[in-house]
Structures are given as C-alpha cells and as structure tokens.
Design brief:
The chain has about 400 residues and is of the alpha/beta class. It has ten helices and 16 strands. The structure holds zinc ion (2 copies). One zinc ion binds near residues 107 and 139.
C-alpha cells in the first residue's frame, strides 16, 4: 500500500480525529490513572472491530490486528497516554478541565494518531503478519513500559520489533527526524543526605553546619562533568533540590540534596556515580559531617537500531519527501521509557515535527498544545510503516 494512499485516507478522517484529540486534551489523567483515556481507547478500538485487552500495567490497552495476507511477523506500534501535573495556561475550548493536570507533552496527540492508524489499518489490513497497537500508561517518570515488560509483554505478544513516535516542537510540521542510534538520554536520580550537628545560629562553633557544607557540595559537584568527563561526551548533572532548616536562628542538623544525571553511555553512569560519591565523601569529611548517597535508576537511553531506523526514514520520505526527513539531528538529553522496550527488541522511535515552538509551545510548558495539523500525517506514517514492514 502506497504512502500517498494512507495520507489521502487520513485526510478524509482528519476532522473526526481532531475531536478525539480535543476530548483527550480536555480530560488529562496522570500516570497509572488513565482510566477514562483507556476506556476511550478501548471503545474506539472496538468500533474498528478490534478486541482490546485492557488492564496491562494497570491502565494500559493493547489490541492485535491480523493482516489479511496470512502468516508473517508481529510488530508493535506504541503510544503513551499519560498527562503531566502542570496547570494549563491555554484558554482555548479544549483546554484541560482538570485543575493542575495537562497534556503538556502531546500524549493526547500520540494516542489519537495511533488510534487513527488502527482505524485505517483495520479497514484495510493489507499486510502479512500482525500489528500490536500498544497504548501504554505512565511514560512521564512512572515507567509504564518497564511495568508492561515485567508483566510479560513480550511473552504475550512475541513481537519482532517495535516502533515509537514523539511530537517535536521546533521541528517544522511536515518533517520527521529519524536517528540511527541514540535518540534520547538515559537518566539516574540521586539523593544525598548530609548529617551534622544542629546548634544555635549564634554559636556555630558548637555544631557542624550542613548548610555551608551543602553549598560547597553543590559547587564541587559542578566539576564532575566539567573536569572528569571527556568534553566530547554529552552528560548533564543537575542538582535540583536542597532542603535544610526551618528557622532563621537554628543551624539544622540535616540537609538533603537531590538531582539527576543524563547521559547516553552506560559506562558514564558508573563513572559519575563513583565521582559524585568520592567528591561527596571528600566534602563531608572536610566539614566533619556524615554523608549517605542513594541512587534510583531512571530510564535507560533510547537507542534506535539502524535497520529499523532506516525503514522509518524510508516510510517518512515516501510521505513528506527525503528532504523533510532529518537524519543528522542531535539526540535529546530528555528521556523516554520506550527505551525499556528497546532493551529487548530492535526498533526505532522517531520525532514528528509539531511546528514552531514560539509562544511557549514547548514540551512540558503550560502554553504547549499538540498540533492538530499533523494528525493525518502521523496516522498515515503509522499505517504506511506497518504495511511497509509487513509487506504482503
Ligand atoms: Zn514528557
Ligand atoms: Zn512525552
């Protein structure tokens, strides 16, 4: 099936899909609370003649579509459904009706585009094998994909490969970016507890001050990346929290610092852990304090496999022309839990241009909105990708 065929079919359904997207945008739900969204997804899938399986990883929904071309491989197309704890600043008619919750990352658009693709493909399943539509919960920090994998996703759906897509503000509408290799960074979180001896603010010599030591530690940690890592390696270490004290006249006994590390190479995470702990211990010793560091694994880096990325690029080029498919875009230091699927199977995660990022239309901004104009393109891309990979 030609890419142009899918695009024409998609354009004919565009106005209905906008309504779906606005419905989802108006009712955002946070990680693992996507009940209304999941019910909406399941209802639509049923209306296409599919049999959705609900309750995967809590609120996830999956449906399998068999091609009419007979036996063939199984592939998965994945969208995320969760919103963010952001208070929407937009005032248009479809703005969030849930105080403090917002689709500020465009997962309403992702869900709509995958539903739209399911609708197109269910009407014309011109492929051999099967397509698994994956609507996952909790992409934003909750690790919904990890939970799906832990609950046996690959045993239940033995897919050969998986594909993901994220809208990208700043990339023009009508363009794609396809990375061969790293596309999104890996993350780790750290928490540092400093313990000293609390005392009267007027008698500092009788205590061990965690505030002064903590300030020195924040400064010292700036050298982990700048002095210990090859400058050609992309790494970020950010201290994002520093909690200590409750009174103006008390030197507190404890301080807690926290932050995040972002990188692509697994060995860098090992190196940064060692350096942060070494420097932390050195600073604590210098000030006569005790220190404890805890690490939380976040998301692994999202690394596209070359062959699957090449297929995505081919399909995107058939839709928008090769000149509108960027292959050399630098990766993002943001993270993405599609990485958990890619730890087990080959696949690729592409960016679809969301248009200009002016006026605060940035991911996670209270001014963001998914660009409805790209709904048909995204849906056609999914349908064309499935029929290209599973050519009958
Ligand atoms: Zn996000
Ligand atoms: Zn997102």
């Amino acid at each position: 099936m030609e890419a142009g065929h899918w695009l024409a079919r998609a354009r004919a359904r565009e106005s209905i899909w906008r309504e779906w997207r606005h419905e989802l945008h108006a009712h955002p739900e946070l990680a693992y609370e996507e009940r209304r969204t999941a019910a909406f997804v399941a209802r639509q899938l049923r209306s296409f003649g599919l049999e959705p399986i609900e309750g995967l990883a809590g609120t996830g929904v999956v449906a399998v579509l068999e091609g009419r071309g007979g036996d063939g491989p199984m592939i998965a197309l994945r969208a995320d459904m969760d919103a963010l704890p952001v208070a929407e600043a937009n005032t248009f008619a479809h703005a969030s009706r849930e105080p403090g919750k917002m689709h500020a990352c465009g997962h309403d658009g992702h869900t709509t585009m995958l539903l739209a693709a399911a609708e197109l493909l269910a009407a014309e399943p011109a492929f051999s094998g099967s397509v698994v539509f994956v609507f996952q919960p909790a992409e934003e920090g909750g690790g919904g994909a990890r939970r799906m994998v832990e609950e046996g996703f690959f045993e239940r759906f033995p897919v050969r490969e998986l594909y993901g897509m994220h809208n990208w503000p700043g990339l023009p509408a009508g363009q794609f970016a396809v990375h061969s290799g790293p596309v999104m960074a890996g993350t780790e979180r750290f928490r540092i507890a400093l313990r000293g001896r609390g005392t009267h603010a007027a008698m500092p010599h009788l205590g061990k001050d965690v505030v002064v030591a903590g300030a020195a530690l924040v400064q010292a940690l700036q050298t982990v990346v700048s002095r210990q890592v090859d400058p050609l390696q992309p790494v970020v270490l950010s201290v994002t929290q520093f909690h200590a004290g409750h009174a103006f006249n008390v030197i507190p006994e404890e301080a807690e610092l926290a932050g995040t590390v972002r990188a692509f190479a697994p060995e860098l995470f090992v190196r940064i852990r060692e350096e942060l702990e070494r420097i932390g211990k050195g600073v604590a010793d210098a000030f006569g304090l005790s220190l404890r560091v805890e690490w939380d694994e976040g998301y692994p880096p999202t690394i596209n496999t070359a062959a699957e990325a090449a297929r995505c690029a081919e399909v995107a080029a058939a839709l928008v022309g090769a000149q509108n498919v960027r292959r050399e875009e630098p990766p993002s230091m943001g993270a993405e839990d599609f990485a958990f699927f890619l730890q087990h199977r080959p696949g690729a995660y592409v960016w679809i241009g969301n248009g200009a990022s002016e006026g605060g239309c940035l991911l996670h901004s209270p001014h963001y909105d998914f660009n409805d104009e790209i709904l048909p393109l995204g849906a056609a891309y999914w349908a064309a990708l499935a029929t290209h990979v599973l050519a009958a």
